[in-house]
Structure formats: structure tokens, C-alpha cells
Amino acid sequence: MQSKTIIADRGYSTFPINNFIETCEAVCCIPPKSNFKQSWDYDREKYKSSNKIERFFSHLKDKRHIAFRFDKLASSFLSFVYLASIFSWL
Prior knowledge:
By secondary structure, the chain is mainly α. It is built from four helices and two strands, in the order E-H-E-H-H-H. A two-stranded parallel ribbon has the order 1-2. The longest helix has 18 residues. The chain is elongated, with a radius of gyration of 17 Å.
């Protein structure tokens, strides 16, 4: 499944990255750097919502099992990520 909106930090705000995202038929939601002479529009509300996603992944990485990846198989690692996600949402 492909994403329709790509949200990234200002470090990824370059014209080649924006052009690549647009050729992939996705919406670019990357704010321009402050020193750019030519800026572009982006959805500020979607960019603000990325903070929730980053905090969620930070919370998951607090779990020692996920941070050090004790599981050898990708399927068992993913199942533990699902389990930790359920516990954090409850």
C-alpha cells in the first residue's frame, strides 16, 4: 500500500526530493527551510500531526525488547511491535 502524503522534517526539503515525491503521485508535506529564496506551500495541519507519530515511535523505542531487537525473525519482531502498540493505546 502506498502512502498518498509524505510528511518529513525540514532536513528533507530539497527540490529533487519534492519532485521525486510528485512523480510518485503523492502529496509532499515538507516545510521549506528558512534560507530558501523560493518556497512552496504545504499542509500545516498534516505536518503538525506528525508530532504524534514521532512521539508514538519514541514511546515504542522505550521498550527494551524493541530497541535492541531481541527477536531473530521479522514476523516475531512485528508481532511484538503490534503487542506493544496495543498496550500503549490501552
